[in-house]
Amino acid sequence: MIDPKSLADRFPGDFVFGVATASFQIEGASKEDGRKPSIWDAFCNMPGRVYGRHNGDVACDHYHLWEQDLDMMKEMGVSAYRFSIAWPRIIPEGTGRINEAGLDFYDKLVDGLKARGIKAFATLYHWDLPLALMGEGGWTARSTAYAFQRYAKIVMARLGDRLDSVATFNEPWCSVWLSHLYGIHAPGEKNMDAALHALHYTNLAHGLGIDAIRQVAPQVPAGIVLNAHEIIPASDSAADKAAAERAFQFNNGVFFDPIINGQYPAEFMSALGDRMPPIEDGDMAIINQKLDWWGLNYYTPMRVADDPTPGAEFPATTGAPPVSKVKTDIGWEVYAPALKSLVSGLYNRYELPVCYITENGACYNMEVENGEVDDQPRLDYYVEHIGIIADLIKDGFPMSGYFAWSLMDNFEWAEGYRMRFGIVHVDYDTQVRTIKKSGKWYSELAAQFPKGN
Ligand code: NCW
User: Fold this and answer.
1) Ligand 1 midpoint to CA 177 (Å)
2) DSSP H or E stretch at residue 334
């Protein structure tokens, strides 16, 4: 096993090693202190949507156990915690009245982090849209972008003085395509036109959110977290390569191009532009604002083969077989070199600020045996992928931090609780946390930062 000390030598002293979670996946307390349902509460109640009809009512009960969870993070020596804020706790109906009790929870959480010397990295939107906003059409409605801007202002006015970082969105790829085109995530739509509306209004909300942050708390470094995909053509054929470029535009370009360059990708627009909602004067300038940082969530590459069927030019994501035989328990191919080519490729293509790896990790479902969780494959995954980050730093890329997904096992969306990503095991009957073998290794690495402490 790679010694965490020698791996630590490959990182600068101020590199941030943290852990990440998301509100709906861990908090539970779904009806407490004024919280109203999100689209995920409703989705969990629909038959056939979430494995085992699991829901977020209790989850890891972090809403009640947060102090204990913060103590555990402190004990593990991580220097930062990336968490998300539940919009339905803050503005339960999405617009209108503010719920002070919701703000109080995150206020205590942030103070708790500061008291333990842990940096607070907040994400404003990790998929728990207030259900009431579906009345207007959810993300397919322009008004949702403005509701988000107001929500961002309210959160930043309360927490901005103590946050070390803020992200507008987590993985808009999921809340746009997975939620509105593939029907796998809430609200479970399968409609390209709806998805294209969600795309533009999510991008607009990001820009309006950046405006809100800069107005209310300009000192907090602001960014967005994208699950950019490394798109690998199935072969060297011109057709597969062209499909890979189209897939790049559809999966990555539709976020990076407007945010970084102020326009949607050309080929994507010529195929689908007439089905986009009206792009109003000034929209692209709102979306195209300089960011202080960007976040990359990376798990697995996307392999693409050409599909010659007319009309299949987009999304152009026809799967191709994995190259690596190694898969995690959720079926995702393990292929660390793609992380390196992804980051270098994105820096070649776009003028990007500093990068945080805001999520990386692996799903393995080992249980506790004799008080221990032997999750060696997850540990191997971390060693390999963190090694790639060290290589990228050596090559001169501005990598500022790394967050393990996830601090603890949690509600894995459509997969319910059966898929475990934690470096800490959660027993959902007792809420007992057990640090896994990977978690012990990671904490030995993380505890060395910041160096010279
Ligand atoms: S689902 C997903 N994840 C996992 C989740 O727990 C976390 O909240 C997310 O930020 C782990 O990291 C992200 N990502 C989406 C993966 C795409 C699934 C592909 C489905 C095939 C169409």
Assistant:
1) 12
2) none
Q: Quick check: is 415 catalytic?
A: no
- Selected residue with higher pLDDT from 263 and 311: 263
Q: What is the C-alpha separation between 130 and 121, in angstroms, rounded?
A: 22
Q: Tally the residues of the chain.
A: 453
pLDDT of residue 321: 81
**If DSSP codes are grouped into helix, strand and coil, which group holds residue 237?**
coil
Ligand 1 near 182 CB (within 6 A): yes
- How far is the CA of 250 from the CAs of 173, 231, 245, 375, in angstroms? 9, 11, 9, 35
Residues 326-354 have a mean pLDDT of 97
Distance separating alpha carbons of residues 422 and 432, to the nearest angstrom:
13
Ligand 1 centre and the CA of 243: distance in Å? 23
- Ligand 1 centroid distance, CA of 280 (Å): 31
| CA nearest ligand 1 atom 16, residue | 174
Q: With a 6 A CB cut-off, is 360 part of the ligand 1 pocket?
A: no
Q: How far is CA 324 from CA 271, 331, 333, 382, 383, in A?
A: 33, 12, 6, 16, 17
Query: For the chain, what is the mean pLDDT?
Result: 97
Closest to 289 measured CA to CA, from 203, 219, 355? 203
The yes-or-no answer on residue 412 being catalytic is no
| Coil/strand/helix, residue 192 | helix
DSSP three-state, residue 132: helix
| Average pLDDT score over residue span 323-333 | 93
**Token output for 334:** 């393990």
Does ligand 1 have an atom closer than 6 angstroms to the CB of 174?
Answer: yes
Arithmetic mean of pLDDT, 273-291? 98
The ipTM (two decimal places) reads 0.94
Is 143 within 8 Å of 134 (Cβ atoms)? no
Q: How far is CA 335 from CA 72, 302, 315, 377, 380, in A?
A: 31, 10, 23, 13, 12
Tens digit of each residue's pLDDT (9 = 90 or more) over 361-388? 999 999 999 999 999 999 999 999 999 9
Q: How confident is the model at residue 2 (pLDDT cuts 50, 70, 90)?
A: confident
Mean per-residue pLDDT, 32-42:
98
Residue nearest to atom 4 of ligand 1 (CA): 412
Active-site hit among 171, 230, 267, 415: 171
Coil, strand or helix at 333 = strand
Using CB atoms within 10 A of its CB, is residue 432 exposed (0-12), middle (13-18) or buried (19+)?
A: exposed
**Is residue 318 scored above 90 in pLDDT?**
no
